[in-house]
Amino acid sequence: MNPTKPLVTAKWLSEALSAKSTKIRVLDVSWYIASDIDRRKQFQEKHIPGAQFFDIVECCDKSSPYAHTLPPPKEFGDYVGQLGISNDTHVVIYDIQPKLPMLSSPRVWWMFRVFGHEKVSVLEGGLTTWVNEGHPVTSEITEVTKTDFDVKYQSQLLAGFDDMVANIDSQIVQVMDARPAVQFVGNPEENDVQGKRTGHTPGAKNIPFLNLFNTETRNFKPPGELREIYKSSGIDLSRRLVASCGVGIAACIDAFGAFLAGKEDVAIYDGSWQEYGQKATAEQVAKAWSIG
Asked: Where are the alpha helices (DSSP H) in the chain?
């Protein structure tokens, strides 16, 4: 079992940074859905002291036709090494968004894990909670020394299109879909964020990622409540499980929630609906009437 806590509080991080006894690297991984916000400029204007900026759009497979899919292992290792991260670094990730302070953090948390780095945590409540609790922010950019990061690829945490198609008949692996219900059920009047058809992989269960958050605090619900959400949605956390969504971001939120609930080996279908909705035949797409 991974001894690193998946969630850390602002108080914990503040004390750890002050003690300077633990090798910690803080990353701002903010990302927005369909937004023209300059994320790097936003980081430069305000961030946790010592933090570095991790760009999901930059650290990806640029040869893929799909948005921000996983980069090749060596490219990931080189990218995080330039951020001063080595294999003994405890990486703490945060978002800057006030309305949804943990949107992209689970994605980068999963990226580190799929490349073999278990010392990674998400800052609970993101920068919003950090500021609200009185901790400092800065515009000063900290220079870091490039280090070596040895990738240990964990293929079991990743699923592809062929895996999803093969599972239609076998149903060996459970699939949970983190998209909003209107996209999942295949409403003919609605398109997803890529403008493609809606629907879902046959047999998948819909767990909209927003359901995992407390509506007031926007923090993740307690583990017991999360377990009940998965159970009531038809997900058995003792069985193999793959998460999917629209573009591979929200799926990681569902996987992170499952991790908090005790399921630590959820795989991500990285191409998600941006790939499946384009490649699948009509027979490989389920609509509302197939929900059971």
From this structure: 10-19, 39-45, 73-81, 105-114, 126-132, 161-170, 181-184, 223-232, 250-260, 272-279
